Amino acid sequence: MSNRTFTMIKPDAMKNGHAGAILDRIIKEGFRVVALKMTKLSEEKAGEFYAIHRERPFFGELVEFMSSGPIIAAILEKENAVSSFRTLIGATNPANADEGTIRKLFATSVGENAVHGSDSDENAAIEGAFFFSGLEQI
Ligand code: CMP
């Protein structure tokens, strides 16, 4: 079990002014920030990041949304990071997210759901490497 996960604060949460509150919550929950940057994905890069969803009906919408504005990307460290972080953010659809979770508090819809969290240790490593070189991870 790896102790790292990868997250993005998505364009909806950035636009709605929730980035500070989300980062504050993540740090208060005991995650150490290993790497962090604000950036904006091109449609091409967003499609590459979410390539696993290419055949899904919502792929076009997902790519358009994820390239619609700035995001914050970060690698986080904590014991059982992937599952611990997924518990903190709540269900993909905020309508199904538990009270107090980041998506319950800050997400708008299943598409515009405030944050991304890796779903496995393997994907956490792939997704972290998509945004950060080894030198950028401290
Ligand atoms: P994320 O955890 O970043 O990984 C894939 C994303 O696809 C997911 O969050 C949602 O934002 C998005 N997604 C999943 N299901 C739907 C859907 N039915 N409609 C639009 N977007 C979706």
UniProtKB/TrEMBL annotation:
Residues holding ATP: K10, F58, R86, T92, R103, N113
The keyword DNA repair is annotated on this UniProt entry: no
Keyword Magnesium annotated: yes
Signal sequence coordinates: none
Domain Nucleoside diphosphate kinase-like: 2-138
Location (main, coarse): cytoplasm
Top-rank taxon, per record: Bacteria
Residues annotated as the enzyme's active site: H116
EC numbers, comma separated: 2.7.4.6
UniProt-listed SMART domains: NDK
GO molecular function terms noted in the UniProt entry: kinase activity
Localization terms from the record: Cytoplasm
Reactions the enzyme catalyzes: a ribonucleoside 5'-diphosphate + ATP = a ribonucleoside 5'-triphosphate + ADP; a 2'-deoxyribonucleoside 5'-diphosphate + ATP = a 2'-deoxyribonucleoside 5'-triphosphate + ADP
Cofactor: Mg(2+)
Family, similarity comment: Belongs to the NDK family.
Function text: Major role in the synthesis of nucleoside triphosphates other than ATP. The ATP gamma phosphate is transferred to the NDP beta phosphate via a ping-pong mechanism, using a phosphorylated active-site intermediate.
Subunit structure, interactors included: Homotetramer.
Protein name (Swiss-Prot/TrEMBL): Nucleoside diphosphate kinase
Source species: Flavihumibacter stibioxidans
